[in-house]
Structures are given as structure tokens and as C-alpha cells.
Fold this protein.
Amino acid sequence: MKCSRQSLSEYLDGELSSSDRQALQQHLFVCGECREVLAEYARISEQIRSLPRHPLPRTFGVDLRTALERRHSAHEPFPAMVLHLRPAVLATAATLLLAFALFGVYFGVFRSLRTEIRPSEWPGLQVDWMRQRDDTRVPVDLVSTAPSPDPLEIRFGQAMDRVSVERSTHIEPPVAVEYFWADDALIVFPTEHLDAGTSYTVTIFEARNARGESIDQPIVIRFRIGERTIRLLRGQR
């Protein structure tokens, strides 16, 4: 597979087919440049998500209509019409123009902010570890995983503090990984091959959701790598 920024954007958006997704994951395993681009797209998405939202002034519509009517009646050039607008309206308009410009440049990244949940690509592997006993805990689904070089994808049931999740995620036996986010899914991407027949344990502890609330017990996921299949050994809270 060749390098394709469009495919990286569609990967974050969840728009690739199962076969294309697997092909891209295998490409990412050997292409550090594409991994860097994917990480940059994820950072841009996070920055856009954190932009402040300014409500429109209540008089925005009236001010705009008045300015347009004045321009039409006096045949003012566009710059002169703009000068008649209130500073608050100008600031809001500038913010909107900037937002639309960013949307045009990073349209594929914007689409990654959707919250719909994809079905598991690997039948039988979607597991809800947290919902069985207490719905107030942070639910997490094991959406898909497979032998290296495919990643482990863990989808949380709510927005999480991403920094705290990454810092509190540990894998035993130790293996080099990189973290990416797609919506509320943490993608743990191994940068080295996992050993067939080896049992791995992923532990997430002391993580917080976006409101700063800590999960009350660690999330522990254990799995064993097989030949193009994966066998879940046990999941415990």
C-alpha cells in the first residue's frame, strides 16, 4: 500500500472498509512518516475540539441586514459596508470565517469528531467490561484487535481525559506502542511485533473522564496472540 493522506483521514473518520483498514494498519507498521502524519491529524482534531465557542450577538442579524440595506441603497463598496458593523459583529464574523477556512482545509479531520460507534471488525470480540455490575462506572468496549501489526482499539462510552488515559495505560510484557485517538476510542498501535502464543495484559488505572472524574477501579484486558485470530483470556475490573 502506498502512502495516502486521504486514507489516514478516512482511517480516523472510521470510513475505511475492513480490508482497507487492515491494509493501512499494516502499512503504518512499516511507515514511520505516515504514523507521524496520523499523529498530527489527531492533534489537529484535538485542537479544533478545544477551540472556544462564542455565541452570536443577539443583534447580529439586525446589524447585518441593516448594513446590507445601507450598502444596497448607497451602493457602497464592500469595505465601506464592513466598517459600519459593530466591533462585536466583526469579531464574530472573523471567527466564523476562520472556522470555515479550517473546515475546508481539515474537512477529513473534522469528520472524525462524530460519536457513532462502529461494529467490531472481528466478530465475537466486542466486549463491554464495565456495564455488567454498575452503570455509573466508565464503560469501555474492546472494539477490535488482531495479531501484530494491527492495533488494539478500546472505545470508551464517554469523552475521556486523553492525557490521563495514555499515562495510565501499561502493557505486560512490555512492548513499544504509540497512541492515537479516534473520537472516544484509544488506538494502541504496536511498533514492534507481538509474539504469537504470548499472553498480554493491558491495564488502565487512575484514568479520568473529560469532567475530571476518576474511574473507581482499574480496567484490565488480557488477550493471547494467535494465527490471525485472538483469544480473550479474561477481562476484570
